[in-house]
UniProtKB/TrEMBL annotation:
Family classification: Belongs to the glycosyltransferase 43 family.
Record InterPro entries: Glyco_trans_43, Nucleotide-diphossugar_trans
Pfam families given in the database record: Glyco_transf_43
Gene behind the chain: B3gat2
UniProt pathway: Protein modification; protein glycosylation
Catalytic activity: 3-O-(beta-D-galactosyl-(1->3)-beta-D-galactosyl-(1->4)-beta-D-xylosyl)-L-seryl-[protein] + UDP-alpha-D-glucuronate = 3-O-(beta-D-GlcA-(1->3)-beta-D-Gal-(1->3)-beta-D-Gal-(1->4)-beta-D-Xyl)-L-seryl-[protein] + UDP + H(+)
Enzyme type, top EC level: transferase
Organism: Alca torda (Razorbill)
Protein name stated in the entry: Galactosylgalactosylxylosylprotein 3-beta-glucuronosyltransferase
UniProt GO BP: carbohydrate metabolic process; chondroitin sulfate proteoglycan biosynthetic process
The keyword tRNA processing belongs to this UniProt entry's keyword annotation: no
SUPFAM superfamilies: Nucleotide-diphospho-sugar transferases
Binding site for Mn(2+): D67
Cofactor: Mn(2+)
Amino acid sequence: RSELVSRFVAGAGLPCTHLHVPTPRRYKRPGLPRATEQRNAGLAWLRQRHQHLPPPQPGVLFFADDDNTYSLELFQEMRTTRKVSVWPVGLVGGRRYERPVVENGKVVGWYTGWRADRPFAIDMAGFAVSLQVILSHPKAVFKRRGSQPGMQESDFLKQITTVEELEPKANNCTKVLVWHTRTEKVNLANEPKYHLDTVSIEV
């Protein structure tokens, strides 16, 4: 765990548990799924914390990421998740947005720029799960073995729900409230190598 993150969450004033799980070196290769161990550590922590508490236990799980940008409205939308809710994600899959296609309040397909044949053609930022669903499916995890890059969302959601059960949010999946803006390598070409600033600034 880092002091930088610890200070950040302390300053946010929100109750928080700061977990840290390293990714094994053998999985740090291009083309392999990322953040698998970290998401599974979060799932294990939730289950351990709540396994002996009486139901119902309200709560919604969302896998936020450091390279996404969020409208606060998204978090209001997901509050009413009964099982698994879904919505569009902007700037993903080589398109301006991807989204579940909704007819009569039900998801019937996917507007996507990549692998439309996926069971759940959705980005990690495009769904939330009720805590009750997580607790009632104790073996549902993100898989390393047998999971292809870009398929972790589908592989996980297949363990806990069906397309027919999905709950469309964001005005029947017509409103983008989260964007995959990415974390790019910064350009520091003009950063001096010598005669650095005399003040230490945290960036």
